[in-house]
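Researcher: Sequence recovery benchmark, item below. Answer with residues only.
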């Protein structure tokens, strides 16, 4: 945007001149001027001196450069390179001279030849005086009577140079390979702005604007999204509609370092680790731009890269600064998206089957309940002071009736029968009961009991339909009863681990739209309590530990029942794959093509979410190998599922030896431990990674998502599950041993969470110590959590076990898988639909966390009933599993 940049350059010079004249006006404002002519002459001398000095610099460049329009870019580059602003200002102040009254025009002609410019010498005296009066009085304190007055005083100058500015804009746009409609509409908007038309001024009003708090990270300037997209020129004007684009301008590392260094003195905080990751991940200038909807993404990119970005010195970045393509809003038309239509049809088919299955379930249930269950007439008599009734229902039975009934005949329904033969008396609303005669003791004579009849099992077709029944699946979901031998404390651990994951992701993802990201990140990290959140990454290791524990405990018990390792290994793998994959793939299928049609906002994605990885590499997610290259992963947080599945696949290599030989199994388990410790430590040492988490991208690729670095907690779970299997959850421990176990677990877990406080506050760990920490801390966390589960399952959990085994956690724990899959989509939706930035604070983040948690669980219920529970029901029907 070389030509257009010249206009912005001169605008800068004009503003500088205004500031200088304002200084002079402010100085003279306290002393009344003898005449207005003296003020005008003084201003004219200063202005002409500025123009003359500027003209000399341009002419010096023209001697060595061709004056043709094609070389304007080169001339401007040379001009900017040799511009000596301090000298220029000094010359303006110290060497003002009257110069040529057409100096301003001469400058414009040299920068942009062949453009018709107004001639000062031929303008009327009144026009020239009005222009000078507008310039000199625009910001003068004695004349500042409001924005309207300032604009009105500026209008003579604007009107005089409107043709020049419009010609300049046209020339500039034509030199940037911008489409003709975009050029035409952009020119119409600028013309409307100069003429003061409201619809055109809305474009200026809708664009992003700087705000206070830049040093604190206020670099998100979205503007007004809805105002922009609703702009429509009047019917009498050229048809121009607004379109919103969000630019993300990367900040130079030198500036990032300066911003991060600004916080070092506050609490003596190191900027490595989480804080540095926050800076590198989120600190870019996000700027909302309102352009004509005829301008393509390429047009907008060209205008910015050849315009404002070209004015930035290359030394600031170390390379020619450019911006990536902006995200521009456009009308979403699902009727033209074949993939979205197909997915919508598939989801509609699933919804129809769910409706059909639910209707089948409810209708057959009602028919079964009421078929030959109730007699129309109920006869009752008094026997031994108790009102009795004779119920005709496949035989005679006696039940106690309400006290207000007398001998006679009434019409009753089964729902009104009172039962007294069981362990409790009350209104019997279970219509599945058959009332039968029962011989009781003499004391309880004439009382009755209720005998339950099982509901007839449906056939294959009926079973397949009922697998999709919302009624049946909801009952299963909210059922809190568990079979004997269930490790009930695991439910509470799963729920709180998922809550911790949501909390950590809330801080990470919502900080990207915070106005005070730098200030809040520094203040938050300065507190020692923040370590529990900064090290929340081990919450994922809790799930690895629980996964290994359950696989070990359940599989070894199954081998015990079979009295050998010859169990159904096909079902071992198929059940796991079928349990995880269908809902996983269905969520990807829904999220990728349809998300773009669910809303709009400044950061709303255009096109499919993560289109490249999902379009090309979706099969890696299907077979769970998407953690070997993170750029190939569809939905980035699915790396955990790939690791967990890979650990599950190789678990028999450890479980089978453990079943036959404790010594052999422990040797193999120890070798796995040793391998992961050495591999992780060496990778950390060689790459000089920071402890815990490193801000560099290769940390994620080399350590964070790799199975050979994350298997440690899973191995701990296998060991704990093996111990519970061998002891049958019945262990006698001395009180001192129990106390030692709890204290050791607490110390280890607290050391993992808070052990890096010194590292982030002025006492950094050495490379060697960091390598040891990275190699061991996840396994240590798993060991501490393993003790908690072991103690709770063997009777040494006390109040902890009572709390973690609370029945309310049972359905919440069942939903953790779906919550994990959906919770980041919920957060993305909030970010992409937010019209403006948030102000980060403890209260704000707490509200966002609770909202994310509740909405994630609400969405998980729907998705579980639609995607997860039907797949589990189908497996039971097909394989006739209980």
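Model:
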């Amino acid at each position: 945007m070389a030509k257009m940049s010249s206009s912005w350059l001169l605008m800068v010079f004009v503003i500088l001149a205004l500031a200088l004249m304002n200084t002079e006006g402010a100085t003279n404002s306290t002393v009344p001027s003898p005449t207005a002519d003296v003020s005008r002459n003084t201003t004219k001398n200063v202005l002409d001196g500025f123009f003359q000095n500027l003209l000399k610099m341009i002419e010096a460049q023209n001697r060595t450069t061709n004056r043709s329009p094609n070389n304007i870019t080169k001339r401007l580059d040379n001009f900017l390179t040799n511009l000596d602003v301090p000298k220029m200002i000094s010359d303006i102040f110290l060497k003002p001279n009257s110069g040529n009254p057409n100096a301003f025009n001469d400058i414009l002609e040299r920068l942009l030849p062949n453009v018709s410019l107004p001639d000062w010498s031929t303008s009327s005296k009144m026009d020239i005086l009005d222009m000078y009066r507008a310039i000199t009085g625009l910001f003068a304190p004695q004349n500042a009577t409001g924005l309207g007055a300032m604009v009105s005083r500026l209008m003579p100058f604007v009107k005089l140079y409107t043709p020049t500015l419009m010609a300049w804009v046209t020339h500039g746009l034509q030199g940037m390979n911008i489409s003709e409609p975009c050029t035409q509409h952009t020119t119409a908007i600028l013309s409307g702005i100069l003429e003061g038309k409201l619809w055109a001024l809305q474009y200026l009003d809708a664009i992003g604007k700087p705000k206070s708090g830049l040093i604190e990270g206020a670099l998100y300037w979205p503007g007004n999204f809805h105002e922009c997209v609703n702009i429509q020129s009047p019917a009498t004007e050229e048809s121009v509609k607004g379109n919103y684009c969000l630019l993300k301008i990367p900040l130079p590392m030198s500036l990032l370092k300066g911003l991060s260094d600004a916080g070092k003195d506050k609490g003596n905080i190191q900027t490595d680790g989480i804080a540095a990751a926050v800076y590198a991940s989120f600190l870019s200038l996000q700027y909302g731009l309102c352009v004509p909807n005829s301008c393509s993404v390429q047009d907008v990119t060209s205008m910015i890269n050849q315009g404002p970005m070209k004015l930035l010195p290359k030394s600031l970045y170390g390379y020619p600064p450019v911006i990536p393509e902006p995200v521009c809003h456009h009308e979403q038309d699902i009727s033209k998206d074949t993939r979205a239509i197909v997915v919508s049809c598939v989801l509609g088919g699933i919804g129809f089957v769910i409706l059909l299955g639910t209707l089948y379930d409810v209708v057959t249930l009602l028919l079964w309940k009421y078929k030959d269950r109730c007699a129309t007439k109920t006869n009752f008599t008094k026997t031994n002071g108790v009102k009795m009734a004779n119920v005709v229902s496949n035989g005679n039975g006696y039940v106690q009736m309400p006290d207000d009934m007398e001998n006679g005949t009434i019409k009753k329904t089964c729902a009104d029968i009172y039962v007294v033969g069981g362990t409790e008396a009350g209104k019997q609303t279970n219509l599945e009961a058959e009332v039968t005669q029962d011989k009781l003791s003499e004391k309880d004579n004439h009382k009755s009991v209720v005998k339950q009849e099982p509901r007839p099992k449906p056939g294959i077709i009926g079973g397949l339909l009922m697998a999709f029944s919302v009624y049946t699946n909801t009952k299963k979901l909210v059922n809190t009863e568990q079979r004997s031998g269930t490790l009930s404390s695991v439910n509470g651990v799963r729920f709180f681990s998922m809550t911790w994951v949501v909390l950590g992701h809330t801080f990470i993802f919502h900080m990207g739209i915070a106005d005070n990201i730098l200030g809040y990140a520094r203040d938050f990290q300065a507190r020692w309590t923040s370590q529990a959140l900064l090290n929340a990454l081990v919450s994922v290791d809790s799930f690895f530990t629980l996964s290994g524990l359950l696989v070990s405990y359940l599989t070894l018990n199954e081998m015990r029942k079979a009295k050998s390792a010859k169990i159904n290994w096909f079902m071992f793998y198929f059940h796991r794959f079928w349990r995880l994959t269908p809902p996983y793939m269905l969520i990807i299928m829904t999220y990728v093509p349809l998300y773009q049609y669910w809303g709009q906002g400044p950061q709303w994605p255009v096109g499919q979410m993560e289109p490249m990885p999902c379009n090309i590499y979706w099969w890696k997610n299907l077979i769970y190998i998407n953690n070997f290259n993170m750029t190939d992963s569809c939905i980035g947080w699915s790396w955990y599922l790939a690791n967990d599945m890979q650990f599950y696949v190789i678990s028999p290599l450890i479980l089978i030896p453990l079943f036959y030989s404790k010594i052999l199994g422990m040797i193999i388990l120890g070798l796995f431990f040793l391998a992961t410790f050495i591999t992780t430590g060496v990778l950390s040492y060689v790459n000089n990674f920071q402890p815990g988490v490193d801000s560099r991208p290769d940390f994620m690729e080399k350590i964070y998502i790799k199975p050979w670095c994350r298997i440690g907690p899973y191995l701990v779970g296998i060991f704990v599950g093996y111990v519970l299997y061998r002891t049958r959850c019945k262990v006698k421990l001395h009180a001192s041993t129990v106390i030692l176990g709890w204290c050791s677990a607490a110390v280890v877990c607290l050391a993992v969470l808070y052990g890096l406080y010194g590292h982030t506050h002025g006492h950094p760990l050495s490379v060697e110590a960091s390598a040891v920490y990275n190699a061991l801390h996840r396994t240590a966390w798993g060991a501490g959590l393993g003790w908690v589960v072991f103690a709770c399952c063997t009777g040494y959990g006390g109040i902890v076990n009572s709390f973690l085994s609370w029945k309310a956690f049972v359905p919440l724990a069942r939903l953790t898988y779906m919550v994990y899959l959906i919770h980041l989509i919920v957060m993305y939706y909030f970010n992409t639909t937010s019209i403006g930035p948030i102000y980060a604070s403890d209260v704000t983040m707490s509200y966002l966390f609770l909202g994310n948690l509740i909405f994630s669980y609400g969405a998980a219920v729907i998705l579980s009933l639609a995607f997860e529970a039907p797949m589990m029901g189908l497996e039971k029907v097909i394989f006739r599993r209980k």
